[in-house]
Amino acid sequence: MLSRLLPRIWAFPATLVGLSLLPFALSTGGGWRFERGVLEIHGGLVAWLLRHAIPIQGGASALTLGHVILGQDVSTLALCRDHEHVHVRQYERFGPLFMIPAQCQ
């Protein structure tokens, strides 16, 4: 049990950032669900942020923050799920340190 809990605790700072977006997504028409042990948030403000606030051409289809995956919509999450779960495992391994390289680019 401890071997499953420690990675979640280690990734929790990033998870908390993702969780903070849930009320904004829900109040703007978005939704959520649990899939493979991870909270997925989609639509509403989250979709807008992924399209407009991510500094890559065309925005992002999905983004992982700890144990929260943000997606533009349900179908995009289905397409990106396997890839985003790789990032979930990276957060479990590197915890808050995983966020540093993304900030340096």
Brief overview, please?
This protein has five helices and four strands, in the order H-H-E-E-H-E-E-H-H. With 105 residues, it is an alpha+beta fold.
Main sheet: strand order:
1-2-4-3
Number of domains: 1
Helix count? 5
| Uncertain residue segments | none
Rg, rounded, reads 13 Å
Which percent range fits the helix content?
Answer: 55-70%
User: What proportion strand?
Assistant: 15-25%
Return the average pLDDT rounded to an integer. Answer: 92
State the total count of DSSP E strands: 4
Q: Give the end-to-end Cα distance, rounded to a whole number of Å.
A: 36 Å
Q: Structural class of the secondary elements?
A: alpha+beta
Main sheet summary? 4 strands, mixed
Overall 3D form: globular
Task: Summarize the helix and strand pattern as letters.
Answer: HHEEHEEHH
Question: Could you characterize the architecture of this molecule?
Answer:
By secondary structure, this protein is of the alpha+beta class. It has one domain. It contains five helices and four strands, in the order ααββαββαα. It has helices at residues 2-19, 22-27, 44-52, 74-94, 99-104; strands at residues 31-35, 38-42, 62-65, 68-71. Strands 1-2-4-3 form a four-stranded mixed β-sheet. The longest helix has 21 residues, at 74-94. It is globular. The mean pLDDT is 92.
